[in-house]
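Moderator note: this is an archived Q&A kept for reference. The question asked for a predicted structure of one protein chain; the sequence and the answer are reproduced below.
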Amino acid sequence: MMDLLEEMTISGCRFMGISGEFQDEEKTPRDSVSAVGIKRIRDFPSERMNDYLWHFTRMRCEPFPGDDWDRYFEDLIGRGTAPYSAFHSLLNILKNKRIVSSPKLIRGGYPVVCFTAAPLGELKRLRTWQNHLARMRFSMYGIGIRKDAAEKLGIAPVIYGDDDEFESLPEAGRFRFQVKRPGGHDWTVEKEWRCRGDVDLGDLDHDSMAVSVSTQCEADEISYGFQVKNVFRLPAE
């Protein structure tokens, strides 16, 4: 383990543990190669975007699912930073190999996991602050699942419609509903897909999943700590 930590320091990162984070000692140049032998982080190929669905993580000001407030405060004291960042949320998903569902903002209270099929150019425009929800719509951190594998997990496109459309849907399909009203907020730009219940990443092979991060240090941590094959950066510009 000490050899690994020494290698991480050589690469310009300080390793804080799987539940923590890397911190840049020096900013890793965009086109440099990690000194520890991990291939440099690459932009996700734009021509492959349509083959994947993406679940993006967010900053959290509360415990992760299954944790309590005592653990949350212990983590904050141990890290000296607050709250959990979008990168911490990503690490927690990879550690547990599961994306936990939530009923928040879902008509009917169905617990779901949300994904987007928005193309790369649209994703860049959708990285905006949502005043009504007091959060970013999408971050740079996420899990991508190839569409063919996602469909086998029960992930399906959202059905946009009015209240009558919701009432007409069978119960088994209502978790996919998202309201669409004339003059209302246009949710269709998100090109959302949903899974009812948790998504078990342990059911996926390495080639069916990709991970999006922002820096080389983050890519190194995920490649070393979780043996993830496909770690990319989604271009911000």
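Archived answer notes: The longest strand covers residues 52-56.
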